[in-house]
Specification:
alpha/beta, single chain, extended, 135 residues, three-stranded parallel β-sheet
């Protein structure tokens, strides 16, 4: 487990607040941040992107839509990974998501292929990869 600068046990966030696209942008001093506008959305820049489909992750997901998550998790350090899996479950629950599948993999080399396959499944909206790399 990690320690903070005072040597105390670090605590993990137990809640996740789902955000809308653009809501995590840093505000510019004196700017109204009630609505985020990206450069490609301005009249001056829009012409550069004509014919290009631009989307933001989350455009089609609302807070009311059920989110279906798969988790790919490394088997090594299984005690730590069990704790990480529980944290991922709590985060999913806090954002109104359902963990549909959990796939344990031997290590980080196997995770990308399993992730790619899970993303092809109709009942999975996203994949969370959980692992621990020891140096």
């Amino acid at each position: 487990a990690s320690k903070d600068s005072d040597g105390e046990q670090a605590t993990l966030q137990q809640q996740y607040t789902f955000h809308t696209p653009g809501s995590v942008q840093e505000p510019t001093a004196g700017e109204d941040t009630s609505e985020v506008v990206f450069a490609h959305q301005t009249p001056e820049e829009a012409g550069k992107w004509s014919g290009t489909q631009i989307t933001h992750v989350g455009d089609t997901i609302t807070n009311d839509a059920p989110k279906r998550i798969a988790i790919v998790i490394g088997e090594f350090h299984n005690v730590l990974m069990d704790q990480c899996l529980e944290d991922a479950r709590l985060a999913a629950e806090a954002m109104g998501a359902t963990v549909k599948k959990v796939v344990w993999v031997p290590g980080t080399y196997e995770a990308p292929l399993v992730t790619e396959n899970l993303l092809q499944e109709a009942d999975v909206d996203c994949v969370v990869v959980v692992g621990y790399i020891e140096k």
